[in-house]
Specification:
Blueprint: E1 2-8, E2 12-21, H1 32-37, E3 45-56, H2 58-73, E4 77-81, H3 85-93, E5 102-103, H4 106-114
Parallel strand pairs: 2-3, 3-4, 4-5
Antiparallel strand pairs: 1-2
Amino acid sequence: MKLSTVSDDGQVLRVQASGRITHDVLSPSVDELGNLLGAGGYARRVVLSLADVDFIDTSGVSWLLARHKRFREASGKLVIHSVMPMVLGVLKVLRLHAVLLLADNESAALALVQGGP
């Protein structure tokens, strides 16, 4: 998985994920999203596009849940959007659409991230 910054207006950071979110590409010792966010980054409002992620395994699901938890603990907000059907199917089977903040597209994600906690 590769993470890249799309834009940062000081209020909302837009991040793009690409590739597969799997055990093979996730490093337990490196927090790639945290490194991209910088110091205090989990207290920010972030929209994460999964439009270019075509596969996720249990390690990837665990990674998403851990990031979600870190944002909540730091009073930040993570909204995931544009999830490919295969990945969305996995999240729905695991009923994580009730836990994670998911939006159909970037516009909806931006509206959701601007809303209350």
